[in-house]
Amino acid sequence: MNKKGPNFERDICKQLSLWWTDGERDDVFWRTSGSGARATTRRKKDIKTKYEYGDVAFTDPVGQPLIDTFLIELKRGYTNGISVLYLLDKKAGNDALLLEWWKKAEEERKFAKRKYSIIIFRRNKREACILMERSLADILESECGNDSMLYITINLKTKDMFDIFLLSDFLNWVSAETIKNL
After folding, report:
1. Cα dist from 37 to 4, 63, 162, 175, whole Å
2. At what angle do helices 97-112 and 37-44 cross, to 10 degrees?
3. How far is CA 169 from CA 93, 127, 138, 164, in A?
4. How confident is the model at residue 35 (pLDDT cuts 50, 70, 90)?
5. Domain limits at 101?
6. Given a cut of 80, is residue 145 above it in pLDDT?
7. What pLDDT shows up at residue 160?
8. For residues 52 and 36, is the Cβ–Cβ distance under 8 A?
């Protein structure tokens, strides 16, 4: 069994917890049951499971505003399928891995009644990144300013454009208070 995915999910939940609480706690967010499988299974029976969609849930109500705002998907590995050059080579068609992830996240976001989807991913031996719609990045930029951090804007042949940031840059740029006010 591949242990990289669950370790990555635990690490990201701790990182998000520390960010959300200004370094005070690492236990506010944790992995959802079966990485959202419980919600998916119950949805097939037309039963809703409010806080089990996506890969991250809150374990303390202090984290509820983040989860009410974002459906968070976590992805680890996938070295070949998400490089920018791969997207250009494939012309960001229907087989683009980022697009597949996005479609799944958006479907779950709608069932979970969250405002936005974000995908946090990390390629092997690389830094974690965060993918979001360009329109969300624009809102965050209007709230937090533009600190000239490195990011990539891509078009995955959908109605929206997407931005990819290093997760560390994003967490330094956007505060928990900004998210609470969205």
Report:
1. 18, 21, 26, 30
2. 60
3. 28, 11, 16, 11
4. low
5. 4-128
6. yes
7. 76
8. yes
Residue 131 structure tokens: 């993918």
Q: Is residue 155 part of a domain?
A: no
In a domain, 144, yes or no: no
pLDDT band at 85 (very low <50, low <70, confident <90, very high): low
For residue 44, report the phi and psi dihedrals to the nearest 5 degrees. Answer: -65, -25
Query: Does the predicted model carry a pTM greater than 0.70?
Result: yes
Q: 132 near 98, Cβ under 8 Å?
A: no
Looking at every residue in the chain, the average pLDDT score rounds to 85
DSSP β-bridge partners for residue 155: 161
Whether the CB-CB separation of 20 and 68 falls below 8 Å is answered with no
Number of domains in the chain: 1
Query: What is the phi/psi pair of residue 152, to 5°?
Result: -125, 135
Nearest to 122 by CA among 172, 155, 69, 73: 73
Least confident interval from 20-24, 89-93, 99-103, 127-131: 89-93
The Cα 63–Cα 33 span in angstroms is 17
In a domain, 101, yes or no: yes
Is the predicted pLDDT of residue 38 greater than 90, yes or no? no
